[in-house]
């Protein structure tokens, strides 16, 4: 009986040693923390536009990033004025979030309505681990023959 108890104790000790070393040296995200949650929030910054490389104005506005799934977000840019007097609001749903050097990368497409105008295009950018964001919106309103490039830059996510 003593031998059986000793053998069980040895096996349990060996199993415990191997179980404790399984993840040693690996850096893991906190349990339950999805990539989308890491970038979700409201950012205040500057939206600078250009058309065919020529400046087309800039505005200070907010950009809201909401977690849609573990690895995707929905992005909504506040209403802004482009091309002198045209009012737009932009949104992109299902934007992919991935780990990148020093933060997270965002890539997706724009297919939305702003009032009665159909807007298509793409969205890409980065959110730094420090909460800074730079998101590029390349979009075409309606049947416009050229696209508008808008770059949203924020030094940090707003405290919420």
Automatic annotation (TrEMBL):
Swiss-Prot/TrEMBL keywords: Signal
Q: Which residues form the Lipocalin-like domain?
A: 39-152
InterPro entries linked to this entry: Lipocalin-like (IPR024311)
Which Pfam families has this protein been placed in? Calycin_like
Signal peptide limits: 1-19
Q: What is this protein called?
A: Calycin-like domain-containing protein
Instruction: Look up and give the organism this protein is from.
Output: Candidatus Cryptobacteroides gallistercoris
